[in-house]
Design brief:
The protein contains eight helices and eight strands, in the order ββαααβββααβαββαα. It is of the alpha+beta class. Strands 1-2-3-4-5-6-8-7 form an eight-stranded mixed beta sheet, with helices on both faces.
């Protein structure tokens, strides 16, 4: 798995040895604890889903992504997922470093942590099976982390009185309709001029083809989201309120 990067930020995926080393850093207790938990999840991927994912390089869904400022190679944050998607939903976790906290405090918008997390979210949503990304905060703690989630357009799912705050980001709706209208019009115009010597007939043909294909794909995407939501709600009802869904 290649690292994700732009001109400013590098998202480095830690290998198993690097993750194990990070889990042994006693000077950063919270970081070592999260790294140790991620390492355990990676080494004990559950059931058939884990075995299936192992054939596809499961490390990105378990290990830490280290967000590094390329200018001076300072680590801004660590992000990780709590395993592969379940019913289209990924569980996000993370920790800001002192440099990352300073970036959030100094910049009102588009700070480096925001850029780094946005890059990771875009990468995760580029995988066909991922439609929702969730994070859980405890009470009013982690103020800066919640600020980062808001800047990345996560929405809070709980009321203010809840001890635990669940945040969720949904993958943007598909826009195949506009894409296939353009493609259909281009193809239709070519066919119309070649076969009928008519721009009007070609445009009509292309528009119908584009509308039919684009609407079909967008409707399929919408139905899949609904099925995933229903499956998630059904599993939540079986487990019971307040309990964590298994990963």
């Amino acid at each position: 798995m290649k690292d994700i990067k732009n001109k400013i930020i590098l998202l480095h995926l830690l290998c198993e040895a690097e993750l194990e080393e990070l889990s042994r850093r006693t000077e950063q207790e919270e970081l070592s604890l999260l790294a140790g938990q991620a390492l355990e999840r990676y080494r004990h991927a559950p059931g058939e889903q884990g075995e299936s994912e192992k054939k596809k390089d499961p490390l990105p869904w378990y290990s830490f992504w280290q967000a590094v400022r390329r200018e001076d190679e300072k680590t801004m944050a660590y992000f990780c997922f709590r395993g592969p998607q379940r019913h289209g939903t990924l569980e996000l976790d993370g920790l800001l470093t002192r440099a990352g906290e300073n970036s959030l405090l100094q910049e009102k918008k588009y700070d480096l942590c925001h850029q780094a997390l946005t890059m990771l979210l875009h990468w995760a949503f580029s995988r066909d099976t991922n439609y929702f990304i969730r994070n859980r905060c405890r009470g009013e703690e982690d103020t800066l982390w919640r600020t980062l989630l808001r800047r990345c357009e996560f929405r809070c799912l709980n009321g203010k009185g809840s001890r635990q705050r669940d945040w969720e980001l949904e993958r943007p709706a598909s826009t195949w309709l506009s894409v296939f209208i353009c493609i259909g019009l281009s193809i239709g115009l070519s066919i119309g001029l070649l076969l009928f010597q008519s721009v009007f007939l070609g445009s009509c043909l292309g528009l119908v083809l584009g509308l039919g294909t684009g609407l079909g794909l967008d409707l399929s995407d919408k139905k899949l989201r609904q099925r995933l939501r229903e499956a998630r709600q059904a599993e939540k009802a079986e487990i019971g309120p307040g309990e964590q869904l298994p990963q």
